UniProtKB/TrEMBL annotation, chain A:
GO terms for molecular function: nucleic acid binding; protein methyltransferase activity; S-adenosylmethionine-dependent methyltransferase activity. It holds the Pfam family MTS. Keywords: Methyltransferase, Nucleus, S-adenosyl-L-methionine, Transferase. Coiled coil: none annotated. One of its GO terms (cellular component) is nucleus. Gene3D superfamilies: Vaccinia Virus protein VP39 (3.40.50.150). It comes from Capsella rubella. InterPro entries: DNA_methylase_N6_adenine_CS, Euk-Arch_PrmC-MTase, PrmC-related, SAM-dependent_MTases_sf, Small_mtfrase_dom. This is Methyltransferase small domain-containing protein. GO terms for biological process: methylation. The keyword Lipid metabolism does not apply.
From TrEMBL, chain B:
GO terms for molecular function: protein heterodimerization activity. Belongs to the TRM112 family. This is Trm112p-like protein. It comes from the Eukaryota. The lineage of its organism: Eukaryota, Viridiplantae, Streptophyta, Embryophyta, Tracheophyta. Interacts with TRM9. It holds the Pfam family Trm112p.
Amino acid sequence: MSSRIASIRLVSSHREVYEPCDDSFALVDALLADRTNLIEHNPKVCMEIGSGSGYVITSLILLLKNEVPGVHYLATDTNPIAVRVTKETLEAHGVDADVVCADIATGLDKRLAGSVDVIVVNPPYVPTPEYEVGMEGIASAWAGGENGRTVIDKILPVVDLLLSDKGWLYLVTLTSNFPEEICLMMRKKGYASRIVVQRSTEEENLLILKFWRDQDEVSHKEISSPTFLAHFSRSLSLLMEKRWR
Amino acid sequence: MRLIVHNMLSCNIRGVVNKFPLRIEPEKVIVKEVDFNPDFLKHMIAKIDWKALVDGARSMGYPELPDHPPTTLESDESFLRKFHHSLLELNLEEGSLVCPETGRKFSVNKGIPNMLLHEDEV
């Protein structure tokens, strides 16, 4: 059995908790694709916001466990059932993370600020009527409000607060979330970004974005901003082509 | 809930000033063994609020930590072992975390603290 990522048959479940699906697999594939960089990054604190079934945080731990010992892993979810399921999945794989039931990072943001080296988020990104946002149970796993952005836009400032100087964020988005707008918003906070994984499924066009604090902000703005935007629109048009094929 | 997390949790109720550390009211404490990693401990000690850790460990029945950490950690394995045990091996399985200002209780069930706020607290 490969211990590289979480095993589906060991993932715990509950009818009120989102099961690992295409978006979760795409996020873990992005972490796998970036594994060498993650090992070199040598994180001390890693965190998943919205851990749900626990599939992603468990995979992240298994991915790094042998090469990067002594990492503190944290996972939060706003759904009190989901945090229990996260813990069961971790235990089934014989790994450990500190799990907290929190709205994004309530209670953690003050003392954990500037300390987290890697954050992974598979947010509720599905465009829905605004009133569905913040509903209890499984709806909290997908209801994203207008353009699927209501919760994402709440998460990003918290992520900015929590990340260390060398911190990285991996974020699941849809093309309908206007990811280029998210990247520009983060650029204004001093982050560079790139698409790690793109995937079109029958229902959605998924993009896994990676953000990192750009040490050389000025040159980044001058040199790679147009390049990045051109790259982004190329990727997007490729996805659009696939959609209409 | 381990004390490494307790050390990072504060009360998020709107307007509360004295929000850290949360007082621990234990109902069930368990010990789970964790691999000893001195490098990790040396990295973490700078981020830890020492008094909160000492008081937290005491409230969970482990009074062995000194009031102040030694100035040199390198050669002090017996200290690092105690620090390791307090920070990573003591688990509050059931109990409450109490806000020092308001007395609001955050429950800990099956080892998971619930930091969600009520609507009127946000």
